Amino acid sequence: MEGGGAPPETLTEESQSGCVLPTSLEASGLKKSSWGFLLTGIVGGTLVAVYAVATPFVTPALRRICLPFVPATAKQIENVVKMLRSGRGPLVDIGSGDGRIVIAAAKEGFTAVGYELNPWLVWYSRYRAWREGVQHLAKFYISDLWKVTFSQYSNVVIFGVPQMMPQLEKKLELELQDDARVIACRFPFPHWTPDQFWRLEVRGQSASRGGTFRGREGESVPDLP
C-alpha cells in the first residue's frame, strides 16, 4: 500500500489492545468497590441501630422535667408491696420503667397498669410480665403521664423527681378519689403530709419512708448515695 501505512487490521488490533485492562485489575477494582459498599452499609446500619436504641433513653433528659430511668431496689419494691396489701382496687405506676413495680403488684392480685414514655422499656416490661405469668393482670402503655387521666385508679405509685412533684400533686388532687392511695417513692409531695413513716437503713444512713395524704397513702423514699 502506498504511503507506508500499516494495514487496517493492524491498526484495529493495536487500538483494541491499548484499551483492554488486565482481568486481574478489573476483578480487584470490583472487589474493593464491593467491600466499600459493604463497609458503608455496616457503619450506617450500626449508627441507625444505636440511634434507635439510645434516643428513648436520652430524650427524657431534654424535656422540661427530666424523669430518668432509675430501677427500684428490691427493698423499695418490698416496701411498696407491704403498703399495697392493706388496699384494693386497680393500681397505676406512673413512669413504670422496666415494669418491676407493676409486676410485683400483679403477683399480689392487683390489676396493675404502667405508663412509660420509653418504648423499649414498655416492650421489655410486657415480656417480663409474660415470663412471670401475670400478663393478664399487668398491662403497659407507651404514654406521657401528663396526658393520662388517673381517675379510675385506687392506688398510684410514683418514683418521681423533685421538679415534677408540685405539678403532679395538683393533677392527682383534681383527678383521684378521696380514698385513693398514693405511694410516692424517693421524693415527697410539697403540700400533702404523710401519716405513715418507717425507717430504712441505706448504707449506714437512715431515711424516712411512708405516709398518707388526705386519705391518700404515700411513701417518701429518697435515694441516698
Write up what this structure looks like.
The protein is of the alpha/beta class. It contains 6 helices and 9 strands. The strands form 3 sheets. The chain has a 5-stranded parallel β-sheet with strand order 3-2-1-4-5, covered by helices on one side. Helix 6 links the parallel strand 4 (155-159) and strand 5 (181-185). Helix 3 packs across helix 4. The radius of gyration is 32 Å and the shape is elongated. The termini are far apart. The model is unreliable at 10-17, 48-58, 198-215 and 217-225 (pLDDT under 50).
In short:
The chain has 225 residues and is α/β, with parallel strands linked by helices.
Keywords, separated by commas or semicolons:
alpha/beta, five-stranded parallel β-sheet, 225 residues, 41% helix, 9 strands
Portion in beta strands: 15-25%
Quaternary state of this entry equals single chain
Q: How do the strands of the widest beta sheet line up side by side?
A: 3-2-1-4-5
Rg: 32 Å
For the record, give the distance between the C-alpha atoms at the N and C termini, rounded to a whole number: 102 Å
Shape field: elongated
Order of helices and strands: HHHEHEHEEHEEEEE
User: How many individual helices?
Assistant: 6
Structural class: alpha/beta
Give the integer mean of the pLDDT values: 74
Give helix % range. 40-55%
Strands, count: 9
Biggest sheet, open or closed, and with what strands and sense?
5 strands, parallel
